[in-house]
Amino acid sequence: MLPKLRPIPLKDRVSVVWVEKGQLDMLDGAFVVVDKTGIRTHIPVGNVGCLMLQPGTRVSHRAVELAARVGCLLLWVGEGGVRLYAAGQPGGARSDRLLHQAKLALDPGLRLKVVRKMYEIRFGAPAPQRRSIEQLRGIEAARVRRMYRNFSDRFGIPWKGRKYDPTHWEGSDLINQCLSAATASLYGITEAAILAAGYAPAIGFIHWGKPRSFVYDVADLVKFETVVPAAFEVASKNPEHPERVVRHRCRDAFRKTRIVERLIPLINEVLAAGEIEAPGKPREALDPVLKDGKKVGDAGHRG
Q1: 62-90 mean pLDDT
Q2: CB of 105 closer than 8 Å to CB of 111
Q3: Residue 292, in any domain of the structure
Q4: Rounded CA separation 268/266 (Å)
Q5: 87, 116, 135 - which closes a domain
Q6: Confidence band for 150, pLDDT divided at 50, 70 and 90
Q7: Does residue 300 fall inside a structural domain?
Q8: Per-residue model confidence as pLDDT tens digits over 111-133
Q9: Domain assignment of residue 1, yes or no
């Protein structure tokens, strides 16, 4: 007999799938994209971290319902992912973890500890002593500019800074178009991990005051080992459809670095730097609707 249905953990999922110019629907029990000719493309939505919905995409109520039930994040983005218009909630959020995150962010001393840990993970060395968060942000910005210049020299691409106009996408230079498409993929899977773990995308530590502040914080920890090299590599070859090639390179980079598997433990490691006890399960909390039963076969069977 087949094992009972249960959600696939985020660490075992495909990272990101981009969809454009089609109707997302649930037909004959399957999650599909239907193009204008009626051709169906199946998407194993329960095995995907997030779907990036570009212009020209429509989505039915049943499709959204199924995506939420299986924990797949839906993101409505602009062309190339350069804008985020809206984001769904895949379910599973826990208020106790959100409140723990907020407590760390609202206490200046605890917030500084978390920021110092982020600095250490990102640059592989402890943050300088006796520095405020604003001072650490300044040091970080200088190091990031230097890292971009190093990639520019390595791939032989002129670099004038991270600049683009969201209202005039085609006017951006090639490397900035590639970087925008690459970081959009990373931000999507990072937000899916944050929500799956029960935290809030808006409550950041280095970044502050934006709807995805914590997304930027966490994504920055792994950006220069994943999507930035991929973007510069693609730009150096000047392909006909750079955004599409960048997404494929990012998908390969995510798989190679096992980034989906690493994100939630990385978030927990960062927040643990605050050195306060993490909350346990509240007495009022509901048990999972789909519990893990007795396993059958090996991990490949997802049983």
Answers
A1: 83
A2: yes
A3: no
A4: 5
A5: 87
A6: very high
A7: no
A8: 999 999 999 999 999 999 999 99
A9: no
Q: Quick one: 222 and 183 in the same domain?
A: yes
Q: What are phi and psi of 157, to 5 degrees?
A: -115, 125
Amino acid making up residue 176: N
Q: What domain range includes position 193?
A: 95-272
Q: For tokens 């592989």, name the residue.
A: 124
Structural tokens at position 93: 């959020």
Q: Distances in Å between the alpha carbon of 273 and those of 119, 215, 236, 266? A: 12, 18, 39, 11
In this structure, the number of other CB atoms found within 10 A of the CB of residue 62 comes to 13
* Section 15-37 average pLDDT: 90
76 to each of 19, 52, 57, 250, how far by Cα in Å? Answer: 10, 6, 9, 19
Residues 197 and 59 placed together within one structural domain of the fold: no
Let me know whether 181 and 47 are in one domain. no
For residue 53, the model assigns a pLDDT of 92
**CA 79 centroid distance within chain:** 18
More confident residue, 125 or 299: 125
Angle of helix 174-197 relative to helix 227-237, nearest 10 degrees, comes to 150
CA 272 to the chain's CA centroid? 20
Tokens of 190: 């990072």
Band (94; pLDDT cuts 50, 70, 90): low
* Count of structural domains within the chain: 2
Residues 34 and 27 sit within 8 Å (Cβ to Cβ): yes
70 and 216 both lie in a single domain: no
What pTM was computed for the model? 0.81
- Please give the pLDDT value at position 237: 93
Question: The domain that contains 245 carries what CATH number?
Answer: 1.20.120.920
Q: Over the stretch 154-211, which tens digit does the pLDDT of each residue have? A: 999 999 888 766 666 566 789 998 999 899 999 999 998 998 888 999 999 999 999 9
How many angstroms separate the CA atoms of 187 and 242, rounded? 19
pLDDT at 291: 52
